Amino acid sequence: MLKHIKFIDNHGSFCVNRPENTSYLYFPLASEAGLKSSVTPVLGGDSKIDQDTFLLEPVSSENLHNNRSSRNFWIVKEGHIPYSVTGSSAQQEADRFTDRQEDSELTAGFMWQTLKRTSRELGLISTVTSFIPKSDNVEIMYVTVENQTDTVQKFTAYGAIPVYGRSADNIRDHRNVTSMLHRIETTEHGINVCPTMSFDERGHQPNHKIYYVNGCSGKGENPISYYPTVEDFIGEGGTYTHPRTVYEGYKGVPAHSLAAGKEAMGAFCFSSFTLAPGEKTDFILLSGIADSKEEIENIFEKYNTSDKVKNALEETRIYWKKQVNVDFHTQDPDFDSYMKWVSFQPFLRRLFGCSFLPHHDYGRGGRGWRDLWQDCLSLLLMNPQNVGAMIEKNYGGVRIDGTNATIIGDGDGNFIADRNGIARVWMDHALWPLITTSLYINQTGDIEILKKQVPYFKDAQTMRGTEIDTLWNDAYGNKQRTEDGQVYTGSVLEHILIQQLAAFYDVGVHNIYRLRGADWNDALDMAAENGESVAFTCAYAGNLHTLASILRLMESAGETSIPLSEEIEILLNDQTDMFDSVSEKKKILTEYAKSCRHNLSGRKKNFSLSTLAANLIQKSNWLTDHIRSQEWIDGKDNEEGWYNSYYDNHGEAVEGFHHEQVRMMLTGQVFSIMGNVATDAQIRKIVKSADHYLYRKEIGGYRLNTDFQELKFDMGRMFGFAYGEKENGAVFSHMAVMYANALYQRGFAKEGWKALRSLSDTALDFDTSHIYPGIPEYFRSDGRGMYHYLTGAASWYLFTMITEVFGVRGVFGNLLVHPKLLAEQFDEAGTASVSVTFAGKQFHVTYRNTDRKDYGSYHIAAADCDKTAIEIVEDSHIMISREFINNLSSDLHEITVTLA
């Protein structure tokens, strides 16, 4: 299957030949300090800290093959055509796909990439290793050149990196004007660019950021000549792939020269050098963003020799390897390596947010509310330290009416109301915090987090985003206050209850939760008035049941009641005949929202935990019965059927049969299964329907929907997309993985694995997916992977593999081991294993299935931890107490489970 990509170690590192022959490839590089880069096989891409601070020109995916303003390094031998070690010369581009094309190979691992090229004409082998040290805002290009001929050769080398040096907003808005702000100087080591101001017609601000490119030989020798502007470097009529400076040997300016008002260029020439046969030399290019010249000088001193760079590269590799402390062993080594990248992707989203890679060209940076909570799933499984504090702070984004801020500011607990100044409410947003908090409690046993006191977010939005609070102003601040002006805090449990209960009453004409601005599918954004989401109503039904279980857990720990805001009592109506009335529900919601429209009383009263749990179960059961009776669609035969997922803005069911055309969406099936709305018999019918109407193995598996062949302006922009693109009928990885997770939760392991394996098979089939290893946001209609790296699908895939497939997860702080592995997942010896962190300890869990039986056919015959037998109470799983785990040493521990 892996025709072009080969894994080369146990850490996911891989290589691919002639990567420049595949379009749209790019690789992420980043530091913990803020610098974020994308780098292509010919070293295109960009580099930035945030929306307003781009070192290199911002790029979208189409720029990857259109732009020539890439990082470059030139080698010149007199009498020969100049040679680019990145492959970015006009001649090398012309030779591509011909018998003159040079050999090239890209090797990459977590946060580093090496490009190796062979020049037959010059007899040179060159490598360019790109990486960003974990703690510095500098991107390093480490270049080596080796003479493969049997004669001495003389060369001249040029480093060349165009410096954009301003906000991404200026790529089209005042591009030329903002170049006039540039103040450029050459130093002994390279070029500094310090614009006079940050251009913004709403209010220009002084600029203090310095964008720089430094260079030296591997021995620390400085350049001898500099080209501080684009015009200086490319020459009149020249281009980045045919710069006249390099081709014609133009002399540059000396160090300590000044330039201003033009596009900047980080280019310089080194002293000529000779290489004997087999001899090698190296060069270092440092490009970054700093707050002072002293900082730039310190960075240069830190990385100005080959040994320093090599040490930094090794430290970078070790650091990121340690972050991915999950390891899988199955019958397929390529899948195991693939899982390394899936495990790494949540770290990339923490660093990049949902923007700042070429396909992710929307928004202005940061993560959204949904991303914040789903990324915690993977953190809980890999790096659980401080996740409790993170979760606690995250609840500070909840409004007192149950809605929430939608954009995350810098650091934990900082929130912004919305993106682009648009007030919106996504109806699914209240769902995710409880899912994450429930996992946290199960993994840690920390039920006390529910009693932590947290403020509420406050801004001008009120009445669940339908009105403006005219009394609110900046002096009020962004925290909810009481009538006496004090910042109000409520328990984490109170936040959760308000989210879940308020949503219960926010219904449309079919007594289904209103769609509002959208749900998880942001492209369902044109049905705010009358749209309803059956899919997520199913999910909320499951959430209410989960929350009731957590309340009973609190009871079992000795709690009987908890203080909550007195206003919440309005939402605790338990008259089931009222549940049937849409108008009554709306009255209750309005009454509650009005009670906290501006300030809150601040008064609290104690509520019985058992009464609260019963109230939630009552609501969950009503929702389940209501959806089952109203939303099930019978297929054309008795073996098929599925749930309607939505109502459009005309109040019409979206799914079913439309003029003999089958309309089916995956989302409603996922959450009806996950929320325990679908019965086992219905799940079997859903699976048959999904396999019939949605499954396409050759493009990744389960499409998000069938082709409606309609624009549906009464539903959302997704229907304006070409069918098979993004939310309209692509194989959307996130929902396909959640489909697998839901099936596993309900015991349908074979069906769940089909969904997971279809995604991984397509991703690893480079001829189809055209992506580096990992899971993309979606596979389009021809199977190409799109919007790579920054997707919540990675967290859910990892979560599903650990907690469901391998069945290693927490239950109120204890460790449950309950495998759902299929026979095909065990190696030839009948073993499969996973390494995970739990309760601060590292566990290597090995399953032995010598008869290679399938899930459902085997039982647990024996189990031990570090050769100490574990009692088997149920033959399908074992439970290891928290007390037992706490008494273990801090070393790696072996759990062996024998299946028979």
Verbal overview:
It is a single chain. With 900 residues, this protein is α+β, with helices and mostly antiparallel strands. The chain has an eleven-stranded antiparallel beta sheet with strand order 1-2-9-10-11-12-23-18-15-14-20. Strand 46 (831-838) and strand 47 form a beta hairpin. Helix 9 (369-382) packs parallel to helix 22 and helix 19 (733-745) runs parallel beside helix 22 (793-805). The protein is globular. The two termini are 32 Å apart. InterPro entries: 6-hairpin_glycosidase_sf, 6hp_glycosidase-like_sf, Gal_mutarotase_sf_dom, GH65_N, GH94_catalytic, GH94_Enzymes, Glyco_hydrolase_94_b-supersand. It is an enzyme of class 2 (transferase). Its EC number is 2.4.1.280.
Provide the descriptors you would attach to this structure in a database record.
single chain, 900 residues, alpha+beta, Beta-galactosidase, Chain A, domain 5, Maltose phosphorylase, domain 3, 3 domains, 11-stranded antiparallel β-sheet, 51 strands, GH94_catalytic, transferase, glycosyltransferase activity
Categorize the overall geometry.
Answer: globular
Largest sheet: 11 strands, antiparallel
Please work out how many helical segments DSSP would assign: 23
CATH architecture label name of the largest domain: Distorted Sandwich
The total number of structural domains is 3
Could you name the ranges where pLDDT drops below 50 across 5 or more consecutive residues? Answer: none
Q: Tell me, what is the CATH class of the largest domain? A: Mainly Beta
What would the CATH topology of the largest domain be?
A: Beta-galactosidase, Chain A, domain 5
Multimeric status of the protein = single chain
| Sequence of strands across the biggest β-sheet | 1-2-9-10-11-12-23-18-15-14-20
Query: Structural class, judged by helices and strands?
Result: alpha+beta
Fraction of helical residues: 25-40%
Count of β-strands: 51
CATH-defined superfamily of the largest domain: Glycoside hydrolase, family 65, N-terminal domain
**Compute the gyration radius: what is it?**
29 Å
- The separation of the N and C termini measures 32 Å
